[in-house]
Amino acid sequence: MESMVNKSFWIDRPTFVTGGTGLLGSWLVKKLLELKADVVCLVRDWVPQSELVLSKTIEKVKIVRGDIRDETLLERVLGEYEIDTVFHLAAQTIVTIANRNPISTLETNIQGTWALLEACRRSPTVKQIIIASSDKAYGEQGVLPYDENTPLQGRHPYDVSKSCADLISQMYAYTFNLPVVITRCGNLYGGGDLNWNRIVPGTIRSVLKGENPIIRSDGTLVRDYFYVEDAVLAYIMLAEKLAEDRKLTGEAFNFSNEEPLSVLEITERILRLMKSELKPVILNEVCYEIPKQYLNAKKAREILGWKPIYSLDEGLTLTIKWYKKMGCINERNFKL
Residue limits of the NAD(P)-binding domain (predicted)? Predict the structure, then answer.
């Protein structure tokens, strides 16, 4: 993994991360600190169970408290800390919450993106901006797998928020020549995901509690499952490549293991790895979900020289290990 990263690039580099307490943000900040970057994080809510907090990584970075929609605050941070590289991960990421309360999702994901990019446009020190879009930005398509030329056509609240944020990011790149590159990842999983209605952490927690895992859909939905440490490497490589070649400005890259599985298949894989004889309970109560959605990552392989390090079983094994450890040593803060 380390051989794919230019360590000298990151030493003392002023780097701004939004969404640092989330699943991807926690692991990205940890890796940036290992690379000796000078990291500033924007934090809205205090999440004591976050990997960023539990690992005490948060004590090693500069913290700015505030909302991603606050353009004045963002411009102050970028200017005062002389930020060079920006990773924009802050978002409302839960589909069910977006369906119940679309306004908070639209405001955070769309307005938050343009506020950050406008602040970057006014900040001359910023040289690389990596924007987290999603495979959900593509919406439902008739041709699979999706490549980067697939139209962005979300139809439901979360998907639309990612389509819009993605297009806004492209607008700032092409209209204002802002050094923006966009990532579109499959379903991220890994230790530290506290959204129990997601299938990977939810299934692991159920097994640790001795309960049958719950599948809220009919079990046939097909998705990519992408390990968080592979995603971290992808983001770091992308920033380095953009610094080398400004021609990447405005480009989007899919990142995926290219091993699509149904919800039932990923659940059964976790049960097998945990040596559990529990059986999933299929509720079949989910609505507004795309039946099949998975990515082609050829562009990232060919242009960036990127490839995933972890197989699905390796990523799931590391994830299971994280939840077992946290459930045992920190029961007060980590409610299984």
Answer: 16-317
